[in-house]
Each structure stands twice: as C-alpha cells, then as structure tokens.
C-alpha cells in the first residue's frame, strides 16, 4: 500500500513511517521539508496523489483554544479535500483521550478535527491515545532550574505503540471510532517529569501546578484516562526511562 503520513517528520510521524516501511508499505511524508504545507494546502494534492490511505499525526504545541482550533481545522480541511479529490479510500486520524470531556484549549482543536473527519466524506478511523512518554520533555528542555508541570493523572503510552496501531488501522480499513490506546501503567505527570529529569541527568525543581476550575479537576480525577475497553500499549514507562539513561 501507498500511505501518506501528515506530520511524518514529527515524534509520532517518524515512528509511523518506520512501521509502514517495516511492514512492506510505501510511506509518503506530508511535511514542509517534503514540499507540503498542511496549513495552506500547498503541494498537498500532488503529493497525496495515488495514496491508498492517509494517516494524520500533524500537530501543534499550544494551550490556546483559538490557535488549536484554527490549526486542526485548516490542516484537516485541506487533507480531506485532497483525499476526496485523489480518491483516497481511508483517513486515519490521531486524537487524544479525554478530548471530548476536558475543556482545555488544545482539546477543543481535537474536537474540531474529529468533527471534520466524521463529516468529511472520506471513510475514516479516529484513534484516541493518552499522553506520550515524551510529554514532559519540552518543559524540561529549557535552562531554567524550576519547571512548572501541570497535575495530570494519565496512563501514558509509548509513541511507538501508538504509531504501530495507526499503521495497522490504515491497512485494515475504516473503523470509525477505534478503541482508545493507553499505556500499561497509571502515572502522575509530575512524577513522570521528575523521573525523566533524573534519567537525563538534569537538575530541575519540578513544581506541581493544578489548573484552575473544571479543567484542573478533570485532569486530576481521571478525565484523561481511557473509558471502557481500550488497547493496552506494550512498552512501559520504566523501559522508556532505561532507554534515556542508555542514550
């Protein structure tokens, strides 16, 4: 199969591309470095032509509702239009567990994205994943010795496991709302950040912050945990930490 990967140079996208290649498929990367601007649609129609499926893992790092909604609405709209024009048979989209319940800025963007996918006229699959093991990394990357980390109860999953699931869905065909994917362990984000800092040898004071109102309450009381039956990732957070220490 020929599978286009929107955001194929990012954290999850790189793993998706690798999974597809390992399975004998032909990945086509949709990213600026490959001549495609998803936010404007430039180069997209030509690049996506001939693809059997599209996996969308394009992302933006923001907490602002307007920014998130604008980004996901534009990129998803362009992908759907190009997929319809090119006769693509399946659109697989990565979303996030709790996006329909927690009124956080970024999650409003994912809600808008899911709605567009459902109504876009292209056979679809949406896979919601919990936070990835790497989630705290951008917060720890700066030079400041004091890092503010939001209190979040999660069941973090390896990006590799999410990528494998997305690639499998692309091959299997449209499934609508697929089972959510989460990791094997329930953890606090603050603890994850501290353990990553230690594994990387970074001296950081991690200060827990509870977000205000209903958002903070939802994040700390299970709003970001999968509901009902879900797919359990294979890789543990301990294994992830061990790989950081060996790097």
Question: How would you sum up this structure, described in words?
Answer:
There is one protein chain. Helix content is 40%, strand content 19%. The protein has 247 residues and is of the alpha/beta class. It starts with a strand and ends with a helix. It has 9 helices and 12 strands. It is globular and about 50 Å long. It has one domain: NAD(P)-binding Rossmann-like Domain (Rossmann fold), CATH 3.40.50.720. The chain has a 6-stranded parallel β-sheet, with helices on both faces. The protein has a two-stranded parallel ribbon with strand order 6-11.
Low-confidence runs of at least 5 consecutive residues: none
Query: Largest sheet, described in full?
Result: 6 strands, parallel
Mean pLDDT: 95
Strand order of the main beta sheet, please?
2-1-3-4-5-8
Shape: globular
Nutshell version of this structure?
The protein has helices at residues 11-22, 44-48, 65-85, 105-119, 137-140, 159-172, 189-199, 213-220, 237-246; strands at residues 2-6, 26-30, 53-56, 91-96, 124-129, 146-150, 153-154, 176-177, 180-182, 187-188, 205-209, 230-232. By secondary structure, it is an alpha/beta fold.
């Amino acid at each position: 199969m020929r599978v286009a990967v929107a955001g194929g140079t990012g954290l999850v996208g790189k793993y998706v591309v690798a999974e597809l290649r390992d399975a004998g498929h032909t990945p086509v990367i949709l990213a600026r470095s490959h001549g495609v601007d998803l936010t404007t649609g430039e180069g997209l129609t030509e690049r996506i032509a001939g693809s059997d499926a599209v996996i969308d893992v394009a992302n933006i790092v923001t907490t602002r509702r307007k920014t998130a909604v604008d980004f996901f609405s534009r990129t998803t709209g362009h992908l759907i239009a190009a997929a319809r024009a090119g006769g693509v048979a399946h659109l697989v989209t990565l979303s996030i567990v709790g996006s329909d319940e927690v009124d956080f800025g970024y999650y409003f963007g994912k809600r808008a994205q899911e709605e567009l996918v459902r109504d876009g006229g292209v056979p679809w699959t949406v896979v919601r994943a919990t936070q990835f093991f790497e989630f705290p990394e951008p917060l720890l990357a700066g030079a400041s010795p004091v890092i503010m980390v939001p209190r979040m109860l999660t069941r973090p999953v390896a990006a590799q496991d999410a990528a494998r699931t997305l690639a499998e869905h692309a091959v299997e065909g449209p499934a609508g709302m697929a089972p959510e994917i989460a990791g094997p362990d329930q953890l606090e984000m603050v603890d994850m950040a501290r353990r990553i800092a230690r594994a990387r040898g970074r001296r950081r004071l991690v200060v827990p912050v509870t977000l205000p109102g209903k958002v903070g309450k939802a994040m700390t009381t299970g709003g970001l945990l999968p509901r009902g039956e879900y797919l359990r990732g294979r890789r543990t957070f301990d294994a992830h930490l061990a790989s950081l220490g060996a790097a």
